[in-house]
Design brief:
The protein is of the alpha/beta class. About 50% of the residues lie in helices and about 15% in strands.
Length: about 270
């Protein structure tokens, strides 16, 4: 099946009243686990690559093994570059075949964030690619991006950002966090509900790993378009290799860890439906 854009997935999700799972991968094994889990659940997904992952393998090299995996799948899959902080790198991935770019200028002032994101939006739209932007600061660690303080987004800034950049999707800081939660997050559902109902821009949630099923269900009911899952996948991968001291066959290791990650992804997909 051809790779699709996130806008198509979000329109279908809105009509079906479900949320799309977006899963961060870091090698072929984890990408295959996402595809296998999605096919098992017969549900569309988004495969996300961090800047660090793409820099490690190379832009052309990464898309060369991601594209066949997605195109040979029986369900719709979009490919998103997550938390890109470099405009030129975003342009390289747009040209290479990513269907969406999450450009993150949130560590700059709002005006600078708008200025940078708008340039990426203009270039992406000229190539038929969609853009996700971020307003406010989401605390925690995402790849090599570290924020030790949180800055929740307010409605006026979100509205201005969407109006002036033309982004297709918005990821506001609403109380979730990247990495491991220390306590129960306090999520600003009022902002979520206002953005979805008043601004006509699909809203995505970062820091989805570790939230309770009750929270997931509440976000789905609110009409959130996408929930990102990254830390759960990394922890499952690293945890398995830390535990599997007695397995001597490399291919068996790969098979077993892939199955563990598939099960985690299946659980999230089914929770979001």
């Amino acid at each position: 099946m051809p790779i699709v854009n996130m806008n198509t997935l979000f329109k279908d999700a809105k009509e079906g009243k479900y949320t799309i799972g977006a899963f961060n991968i870091f090698n072929h094994l984890t990408a295959l686990a996402v595809v296998n889990a999605a096919e098992h659940c017969k549900a569309p997904v988004i495969i996300q690559t961090s800047m660090g992952t793409v820099e490690y393998y190379g832009v052309k090299e990464t898309i060369s093994w991601l594209r066949p995996l997605c195109e040979n799948a029986s369900i719709p899959i979009a490919i998103n570059l997550d938390h890109c902080t470099d405009e030129n790198f975003a342009y390289q991935c747009i040209d290479a075949g990513w269907t969406c770019i999450m450009f993150d200028g949130s560590h700059h002032s709002l005006s600078k964030n708008i200025e940078m994101t708008k340039r990426v939006v203009d270039y992406a739209h000229s190539k038929g690619v969609f853009v996700e932007g971020e307003v406010g600061i989401i605390v925690g660690i995402e790849d090599d991006i570290v924020f030790d303080h949180e800055s929740l987004a307010n409605f006026e800034d979100i509205q201005r950002f969407i109006d002036e950049t033309g982004v297709d999707f918005i990821a506001p800081s609403v109380g979730t966090a990247h990495g491991i939660y220390k306590g129960i997050p306090v999520i600003d559902y009022d902002i979520i509900n206002r953005v979805i109902s008043e601004l006509n821009c699909p809203l995505v949630i970062h820091g989805g790993s570790g939230l309770s099923d009750e929270t997931y269900h509440k976000l789905v009911r609110a009409g959130v378009s996408k929930i990102n899952i990254s830390t759960n996948i990394k922890d499952a991968y690293i945890g398995y290799f830390n535990d599997a001291h007695t397995v001597q066959k490399p291919l068996q290791l790969d098979k077993d860890v892939s199955k563990r990650i598939e099960d985690i992804i299946k659980k999230h997909i089914l929770t979001f439906l």
